[in-house]
Design a protein that fits this description.
Elements lengths: L9 H21 L1 H11 L1 H47 L9 H9 L6 H12 L2 H38 L4 H33 L4 H10 L9
């Protein structure tokens, strides 16, 4: 039996496991003796299980906490600015969208809270399999960068607290983790916006009536705005 037979893909392994293994790696760098003691006590198999558990927790918490509360509001401002430029340049509000969620909200009256789910429905039903695979792989890369930011910035705060309260920690690691976390989140945001624009551009090629029927059947429509 291979992983595909039980519904597990490489993308899922990376998404759910990466954060935990990065956490263990940084622990080994910052606290080598303690990490060695933990590994010897737990054993390799249990360490792998715990690594996936930590990675899954980081991945699952990342989207609602950092994604929806922090980054999406920033993305929306950037998309609105880019959309205003696009509309002026091509003189068409219909083709000026750069964000898939904004497109579904404003053009098809999809409720704001359901816009992401509406897009996933359309992607799964209307996109060719190879295109779905490409977008899923790109989103996995983006998630890896966001998870890297979360773990690296967490270790930066940990070392900073060690400096402040205990006056012991390596400043080189502290600065390196801060720089790497900033680079990770910057690359993630740039790629996230770029991929969102690609997804939005493909949405605009789909049949209008088909989209309206699908989001209406799924009860994503905001009838107060209709």
């Amino acid at each position: 039996m291979n992983l595909k037979d039980i519904g597990i893909t490489i993308n899922q392994i990376i998404r759910y496991g990466y954060g935990g293994f990065l956490f263990f790696l940084l622990c080994a760098i910052v606290h080598p003796e303690a990490s060695k003691s933990v590994r010897e006590s737990l054993g390799d198999v249990l360490c792998v299980v715990i690594g996936f558990s930590i990675g899954s927790a980081i991945y699952i918490a990342n989207r609602p906490v950092l994604g929806d509360l922090v980054f999406w509001n920033l993305f929306e401002m950037i998309h609105r600015w880019r959309q205003s430029r696009s509309v002026r340049e091509i003189d068409s509000i219909e083709r000026g969208f750069t964000c898939k969620r904004n497109l579904l909200e404003r053009r098809y009256n999809v409720r704001r809270k359901d816009a992401e789910n509406a897009y996933r429905l359309l992607r799964d039903k209307c996109y060719p399999e190879d295109m779905r695979g490409r977008f899923f792989a790109q989103h996995t890369e983006i998630h890896v960068l966001y998870v890297s930011f979360t773990v690296l910035f967490g270790f930066f705060l940990h070392l900073l607290c060690c400096h402040i309260f205990y006056n012991r920690a390596d400043w080189s690691y502290t600065i390196a983790f801060l720089v790497l976390s900033v680079l990770s989140v910057t690359f993630a945001m740039v790629e996230d916006i770029r991929v969102c624009e690609m997804e939005c551009a493909h949405l605009l090629t789909l049949d209008d009536d088909e989209i309206r029927q699908m989001v209406q059947r799924a009860e994503f429509i905001n009838y107060d705005k209709s």
